[in-house]
Amino acid sequence: MSQFLIADDHPLFREALKGALQSAFSDLEVLESDNFEATLELLKQYDELDILLLDLHMPGNDDLYGLIRIREDYPDLPIVVVSGSEEIQVVSKVMGYGAMGFIPKSSSSTEIADAISQILEGDTWLPTKLKDQVADLTGDEVGIATQIASLTPQQYKVLSYLHEGLLNKQIAYELHISEATVKAHITAIFRKLGVYNRTQAVLIASKLQLEPQTDSN
């Protein structure tokens, strides 16, 4: 039996995608998650997953962090990003950071099934109109991905709040932890990113933002 995991926070889209997949693939079990932490839990429980269909803007995913972290922890798992955005900058980053494919949410059921079939065979897949536009990552971007992959989900949340300009006490309030714990996280973040202050850390975080964000799903 094949096992697919759909990681998306919109239940109606998950249901529609699940139906399309079950119609196209026989003997299929479809697992579902609606946030990044739940996705990680399922990845731990099911070690023979055939493919992960990942929404970039799912809660906890924080743009590219989820993709980078899962790619690092599960290097053999095919990941395909399913997104409402078709911005070439987004597609280039997604493919550069290890996705096997990028499927627009506007794709038909047949296109989605064909894409997944190709990816399961070991090929990458992009819509025809985007193939020639995708650009390679720079050396700096590749290095950043390695550094970001070393952060825990909690550390990345702290980094995201630093990027938003929150003070330590505000971060502590948002995450329901002490200021001392926030400071410990920041120290670890600086060490892992090879930086010495908030400004440098924020600059790195800004390079992972998917701009412009046209996908509200």
UniProtKB/TrEMBL annotation:
The modification 4-aspartylphosphate is found at D55. Transmembrane segments: none annotated. Residues 144-209 form the HTH luxR-type domain. Keywords: DNA-binding, Phosphoprotein. InterPro entries: CheY-like_superfamily, EvgA-like, NreC/VraR/RcsB-like_REC, Sig_transdc_resp-reg_C-effctor, Sig_transdc_resp-reg_receiver, Tscrpt_reg_LuxR_C. Residues 3-120 form the Response regulatory domain. SUPFAM superfamilies: C-terminal effector domain of the bipartite response regulators (SSF46894), CheY-like (SSF52172). It comes from the Bacteria. Coiled coil: none annotated. One of its GO terms (molecular function) is DNA binding. GO terms for biological process: phosphorelay signal transduction system; regulation of DNA-templated transcription. This is Putative regulator in two-component regulatory system LuxR family protein. It comes from Pseudoalteromonas tunicata D2.
